[in-house]
Design goal:
Blueprint: H1 2-9, E1 22-28, H2 48-56, E2 58-64, H3 70-79, H4 109-115, E3 119-125, E4 132-133, E5 139-140, H5 145-148, E6 168-172, E7 181-182, E8 185-186, E9 196-197, E10 216-217, H6 226-244, E11 250-255, H7 276-298, E12 305-311, H8 317-327, H9 344-347, E13 348-354, E14 363-365, E15 369-370, H10 373-382, H11 398-402, E16 413-416, E17 424-428, E18 431-434, E19 464-467, H12 483-499
Parallel strand pairs: 1-11, 1-12, 2-14, 2-15, 3-6, 3-11, 7-10
Antiparallel strand pairs: 2-13, 4-5, 6-8, 9-10, 12-13, 16-17, 17-18, 18-19
Helix pairs in contact: 6-7
């Protein structure tokens, strides 16, 4: 009784164990705001399964990744803490790079749910750093091929999902078809180690196939159908669990390869989109969403499943530039910037939530949201307070999902660009302040992005201020015209940094 009273006083909605929803979170890779037709009617690749989620649930129009690249965002999503707060919080791991960005004992979405009786699984791309060791037991924290050759694959891998709340893991250390170590991890081992150099001669050659480093590959690693392997593993976990433990809720974190370059769609999707290899890859991602929702529906558990679809950051440079030129498709639409940039195109992302028990179908919200909010939201759904010292940058979105929010849940949102703590931005209301010059990521002074460079209206300015209500394209830097607003936001950002939450 006391626990229930305390929960009510804390505003926590307590659900009985049997009522707690299954949770499926699909984290797509480099999938932009403009890549889904439910966000961009001019998109050139149909996304019927993703659009179906929007029709059956809630579509967030102002959601953001905590960072504009892979690793930091994944950290923020799982921990509810902004990555700039931790050492190496701007790191992007490759190959055998590590150690884990996650501190031992740090609360994650998975560890919180596991403590509440959930089965917890991670499938797909990890990318948060691991510790491999050589035959002498020395740690290897080096992504390059020569370091991979030194790995003793009989030793357990340290710092992975099994140490951070997940009971089962099947996936890859880093970007599956990019980062030198082309092999599947099952639990804390690589059953079939990479034993030969990657032969790229048999791989597709097109403008979307260039992000594929010449590393070492295992004999069972299919470069052109990695997402199908991930999908099959997630399907198997769900089926087996529902057969053996139908009363136990589960959490599946499924982190895809799609649509990170290189765009290697599986054979069934090649040539099917009408928008080239990258369009085919987008098509495969959409199908994956449909495969998982379809399985849950057939097994009769979809209605009690909180299903989340989102992305780790904006679309990749080559994908945007080439798709605009080849097919008139803009994965960053309607925003300025792409992956790595602190302009909106780098971190404003799709976020779709389907949960019929609480979320009305066909709803839309312009509430500010960050992927760091997943932790607090899940905690409130299962009826537990966040442990002390966890979820420092996490706000519960449950009132938004239920349609009960009468005011802004988030007073502001912070994002970090490619250069980490040196490239932070803060958004409050329609005002966005960037504590740096330029994009914070990509170089627009040369190369393929030069064609998208905008004239600098405030020469020499080391900071930027935009009013997204009147200037959503971030074309007019008002840092001098609205000096008072810029100073307020700069001070607020400093307070956020000092306070640690």
């Amino acid at each position: 009784m006391l626990r229930c009273v305390l929960a009510c006083l804390l505003g926590i909605s307590v659900l009985r164990a049997g009522d707690r929803p299954n949770i499926v979170l699909i984290l797509a890779d480099d999938f932009g705001y403009g890549d889904a037709t439910c966000y961009n009617p001019q998109a050139k690749v149909a996304t019927p399964q993703i659009d179906r989620l929007a029709r059956q649930g809630m579509r967030f129009t102002d959601a953001h990744s905590p960072a504009t690249v892979c690793t930091p965002t994944r950290y923020g999503l799982l921990t509810g803490q902004m990555p700039f707060r931790v050492p190496r919080g701007g790191t992007v791991f490759t190959g055998a790079g590590g150690p884990s960005l996650l501190a031992a004992g740090r609360t994650t979405v998975a560890s919180l749910l596991r403590q509440q009786g959930y089965a917890t699984w991670a499938v797909g791309k990890w990318h948060l750093g691991l510790t491999f060791r050589d035959s002498a037991g020395q740690a290897i924290h080096d992504g390059r091929p020569e370091a991979i050759r030194r790995i003793d694959f009989t030793r357990p891998i340290e710092g992975g999902p099994l140490e951070h709340g997940f009971e089962r893991f099947f996936g890859t250390a880093c970007c599956p078809t990019t980062d030198w170590l082309y092999a599947f991890i099952d639990g804390d081992r690589i059953p079939v180690p990479p034993s030969m150099p990657l032969d790229r001669s048999g791989l597709p050659r097109h403008p979307y196939a260039n992000d594929c480093r010449a590393g070492l590959i295992a004999s069972d690693f299919p470069m052109q159908s990695v997402d199908q392997v991930f999908l099959e593993r997630s399907r198997r976990l769900i089926e087996q669990h529902l057969d053996e433990h139908p009363e136990q809720p589960f959490f599946l974190y499924h982190a895809t390869q799609a649509v990170h370059l290189p765009s290697f769609a599986s054979s069934r999707f090649q040539g099917q989109s009408g928008a080239g290899p990258h369009g085919d890859f987008l098509l495969e991602l959409d199908d994956l969403v449909g495969q998982l929702t379809g399985l849950l529906e057939r097994r009769g558990v979809l209605e009690n499943t909180l299903f989340i679809f989102t992305s780790d950051n904006g679309p990749e440079v080559d994908a945007v530039v080439q798709m605009r030129a080849d097919h008139g498709h803009d994965g960053a639409a309607p925003w300025r910037g792409v992956k790595r940039d602190n302009w909106e195109g780098g971190h404003r992302i799709p976020l779709l939530v389907r949960w019929p028990r609480a979320v009305a179908a066909g709803t839309e919200t312009d509430q500010l949201a960050s992927l760091t909010d997943v932790l607090a939201t899940v905690a409130e759904i299962v009826g537990v307070p966040l442990p002390a010292g966890s979820g420092e940058d996490s706000f519960s979105l449950l009132p938004v999902l239920r349609g009960d929010a009468t005011a802004a849940v988030r007073p502001y949102v912070v994002t970090q660009a490619f250069r980490g703590q040196q490239t932070l931005a803060i958004r409050r209301g329609s005002w966005k302040y960037l504590a740096h010059e330029g994009s914070g990521g990509n170089n627009y002074q040369q190369g393929r992005l030069q064609q998208y460079a905008l004239p600098e209206l405030v020469p020499g300015a080391k900071e930027q201020l935009y009013d997204l209500a009147s200037d959503p394209g971030e074309t007019r830097n008002l840092v001098h015209e609205r000096r008072e607003t810029a100073d307020e936001l700069r001070e607020l950002l400093r307070q956020v940094q000092r306070s640690g939450r």
